[in-house]
Amino acid sequence: MWKKVYEWLDERLGLNDLYKNILDRPEPKGTWWNTLGSASLFLFILQGVTGIFLMVYYTPSPDHAYDSINYIMNGVAFGWLIRGIHHWGATLMIIVVFIHMLRVFVTASFKYPRELTWLVGTGLFILTLGMGFTGYLLPWDQQSYWATTVGTQIAGSMPFIGDFILKVLRGGEDLSALTLQRFFAAHVWMLPAALAGLIGLHLYLIIKHGESHFPSKED
Amino acid sequence: MPDSDISRRGFITAVAGIVGGIIGVAIGVPAVAYLLDPAFKSNAKEAWIPIGKLADMQMGKPYQFSFTRVQVNGWERTSTSYGGFVIRKSDNPNDMIIFNSRCTHLGCTVNWQDDAQAFICPCHDGKFSKDGVVLAGPPPRPLDQYADFRLTNDGVLEIYYKGS
Predict the structure, then answer these.
(1) What ipTM does the predicted assembly reach?
(2) CATH superfamily of B47-161
(3) For residue A115, what are the CA distances in angstroms to A40, A97, A105, B70, B144?
């Protein structure tokens, strides 16, 4: 029965081919260091899912942002768990993505024909940092308020265009409701959408070129 | 295990499936509870509310009272004011009517008017008698009453508030 259903689906969706090409593709002999990309992908999905769940109770307004997070932590069943995973997952994701990048650099996996994979990867790293930067403001407590004050100030210290960048980031001269709102928009839609798109491209390139061998002595 | 039926591949697949399943359940079950949480909560609204000393309530003259209830929904607090009138009919502490001052038409607050001897709603001129019966205007039914009330040992009248 199930076999029949599966065969019907496979004939139309090409599940077997997908499986063979994506999950069952040949790999050079690797180590645990080769698993960091998959770990990053897992963390991205985990952050996405917990983030969507947090949005059920969070509200990005200066009046209620802090209270709503307080409510998530103390009032909602397992709210502490969902937010805890999102909070620590964020830190872990930056660490894992960074070590993944170091591994690719050390094993020289960025060379021909994988230059584009590397370039897209650096974009992914910057977007990940952007997710960390924008997410940090959302609890709207003293720590996040001043961290964002300083962070945007640093961006604003750039010569000539610094003042403009500062205003774009803050949505005006000061850190305000506009800042919180645009950081929220960036955190839940703009950056994740860009991340998802680039991850798709990154994965396509990896599947197309396969993973690189570790360099041997002759290299 | 020399003649094992399990291949290396099958073993890894099984382990990945089991570990993934455990992680999925460990996160999925709390996630569902998290989503459904508000549906399992009831904010108990009922309470005994003290509205005044019986000694202050004169015979035959409506005694006005008001109280405020704070409703907490998640992180939002809404306080709503309620009011009403006590009308004592005799010396017997149980022989009284307690009206809700909310007009039964559209919810404005009615006032007692001594010269008219009636409760008048300022919004659409609804008019209720001392017994709460509609005398004139659009209200569809008599004034609501707080039917449950009690007297504490130190002479304070309390009404049982049910949530509206």
Answers:
(1) 0.83
(2) Rieske [2Fe-2S] iron-sulphur domain (2.102.10.10)
(3) 20, 18, 11, 62, 78
